[in-house]
Amino acid sequence: MFLNNFFYFLLILIITYFGLKIYIKNFSKFKNLIRNEPLFSLQEEDDKTLKGAGTVFSIVFAIFFLVKLNYDDAFKTILPNRWYFFLVGIFFLSFVSFYDDLKKINPITRLIVHFVLIYFSITMLDLNHDYVPLKLMVFIFLVLWIYLMNISNFLDGSDGILSIQSIFFLFGIIIYSSFYAIDSFSFFLAKTFCPIIICFLVFYNKPIAKCYMGDAGSICIGYLIGYIFCEEVISGRWQHVSILYMYPMMDCTITIIKKIKNGHLPWARLSDYFFLIPLKNKKLSKDQFFKIYCYFQFFNFLFLLGFIYLTKFFFLFSIILNIIQLYYYNNFKK
User: Fold this and answer.
1) What residue segments make up the domains of the chain, in order of their start?
2) 155-201 pLDDT, tens per residue?
3) How many Cα neighbours within 13 Å face the side chain of 147?
4) Which pTM was predicted?
5) C-alpha to C-alpha distance for 17 and 199, rounded to whole angstroms
6) What is the pLDDT of residues 250-264, one digit of tens each?
7) Taken in order 306, 308, 312, 317, is the CA torsion positive or negative?
8) How far is CA 94 from CA 216, 241, 329, in A?
9) Pair 185, 79: CB distance under 8 Å
10) Which residues are registered as beta bridge partners of 211?
11) Do the Cβ atoms of 80 and 54 come closer than 8 Å?
12) 50 forms bridges with which residues in the sheet?
């Protein structure tokens, strides 16, 4: 089993590497056509960096999904109801977002597209509950999934940050699914997407980035994380999955509340997320910030292991750690 998973991981890594290489070779001459909307003034170098490489993510995923579907009968037993909505959703969102990278789409139009696709995708989840009306459950998880998808987009503000956050999230899913012997669709998604994002980070996205995933990648990852998060919550594993994505949820939620309170729209690009403060105020380089963010995520991952193997109190420790992380970034204000 270990060797099978190892070769599966390695094969995805290799195909992703060459897929990204082909994208860079063929799109580098068109990089000035891909829209650049820097989050803050430090990103002058972004004009020289190719964007939109996230389209490769959904293509590689679709290849492996279809191969498993046609040649692995056991795979069909873990597929959710109306699984084809996932394939259509992640593909369509990726290419709509790539168009958004090329030519800006109105935020309201983009939100409507997200709403429609998630509305149909949510039929994959088992939302029947004895104590909560079905319509209320649909509304709750519709809002949650859209929110998580856009958190990933907000988090894509510095070289490698969304990539490393996603890797920790997906690897955490792999660890506790293996520990509890859970063979779920979320487990398959984590095993497939983790090597894709590792390849992108190691070869192309770590500081200083050679290329960016763009909205095509961040929305694709957000759709994936949104599905996994919702499925795990429904399955009763909300604490595990919350530990893995606690910092982005805290940062974005507090920041959006502040935006609305100050009279701004939630999607206004004000560069006011906590994690951007050290970069915006030129207190840390992108490389320094990347290392610090990795340290925080590593300790958060250790708390997940403590939660699984030792005591449930590690959930509280994770909350405290992420509050400390917010406070640490906030101290870099001028």
Assistant:
1) 2-238
2) 887 889 999 999 999 999 999 999 998 999 999 999 999 999 999 99
3) 17
4) 0.91
5) 6
6) 999 999 898 888 887
7) positive
8) 5, 24, 31
9) yes
10) 50
11) no
12) 211
